[in-house]
Q: What sequence folds into this?
DNA sequence: CAGATCAGACCGAACGTTCTGTCGCTAAGA
DNA sequence: TCTTAGCGACAGAACGTTCGGTCTGATCTG
């Protein structure tokens, strides 16, 4: 990607473009927003835009990577305060619930991108698949610490609840959606903890 | 909506347009497909298109109403074979699971439309909100027959699992997604049935 | 005959991308 | 200290294509 060397300090113009794109793509959709709009609101010129992003698709990929980093940050934070096997999962769930209730919440950037880019050959689609693989893998690892034998189905169940909550959070009452999600997660963790306790008692 | 009187037989041209739009919009996304494409593949002319649909938005609304009718048909079928309070819900869940595993599955047309039309004032957005209200209401009514007191949260939980399954069904292994969904629903129904049995035994 | 459909041209706007010349800033070299 | 070169950003025009929508006249069918 142009001008994005790992150790180079990103230019102010590039940051402005990426920040603007992240905000507008998330709020309004990707296809619904043209590069003209991003350029105008970032207050840079066309030449500057194309200097940093060779095409609109490059900007979209940068947007998704930006959101991915934000979500990684959230997960890393939950892992840092790690006391018992269940707590990181609850911390992640609470973070998701808070996000759902935050102003400007507009669902999952990756699920939204999937709706707009269904072609599995498109780089945008491939980017979101990679993100989802990371998230499922992370939850699976955490679930394995709760109960090794059922980690896979339990993680899939967690992610399904997450996906459902993210999808519905801006289509109905976010408070009810968050409650439903947290209850589902708590029930899931309770069942899996009891399995672990039952097997430990043997 | 033009030429769509309740008792009039829809013309062949209109049917072709709607059928084509339903297929392509669902498979490829709404913004990603222009009217030219629909017209070319439906093998009608531009004037015919605009005779039946005054604008692209009218076609999109017709597409969503078409999918809504299909889903109503699925639910009506599940209700028709109604033996016990739990069975319609299981039938609906099984129908959803089969859909997820069917060729060409591309998620929920309404969730996909929500991603592309986030503006709550847009008629497309309002159409999908109405559809979701119908679905949640239907599931709530069915859950009330399982256990009156927890019908609301249980229905929301069911719909959350459904949304998550629909979102993930074409982004990962559809068989695993279906299994996860059906297990989640079975667990939910078991818990709610046991609540009903417990309260009946008092 | 009336309505539906056809063929096809047209419109202005928007789309993503390319390009040119100019300006400002910074760092390095004389 | 001054000059120069290089880099990044600016202003703005231009390109070809696609977009959704409008319109006209001809043909077909019931």
A:
């Amino acid at each position: 990607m142009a001008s994005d060397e790992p150790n180079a300090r990103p230019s102010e113009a590039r940051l402005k473009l990426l920040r603007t794109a992240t905000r507008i793509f998330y709020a309004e959709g990707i296809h619904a927003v043209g590069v003209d709009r991003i350029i105008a609101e970032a207050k840079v010129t066309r030449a500057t835009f194309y200097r940093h992003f060779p095409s609109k698709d490059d900007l979209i990929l940068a947007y998704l990577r930006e959101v991915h980093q934000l979500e990684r940050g959230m997960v890393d934070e939950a892992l840092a305060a790690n006391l018992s096997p269940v707590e990181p999962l609850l911390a992640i769930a609470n973070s998701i619930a808070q996000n759902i209730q935050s102003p400007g919440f507009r669902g999952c950037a990756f699920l939204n991108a999937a709706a707009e880019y269904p072609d599995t050959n498109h780089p945008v689609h491939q980017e979101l698949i990679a993100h989802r693989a990371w998230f499922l893998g992370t939850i699976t690892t955490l679930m394995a610490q709760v109960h090794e034998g059922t980690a896979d189905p339990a993680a899939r169940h967690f992610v399904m609840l997450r996906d459902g909550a993210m999808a519905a959070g801006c289509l109905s009452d976010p408070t009810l959606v968050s409650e439903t999600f947290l209850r589902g997660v708590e029930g899931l963790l309770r069942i899996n903890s009891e399995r672990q306790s039952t097997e430990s008692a043997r």
User: Anything to note?
Assistant: Residues 174-200 of chain B form the longest helix (27 residues). Confidence is low (pLDDT under 50) at residues 1-7 of chain B. Residues 1-54 of chain B form a domain with the Arc Repressor Mutant, subunit A fold (CATH 1.10.10.60).
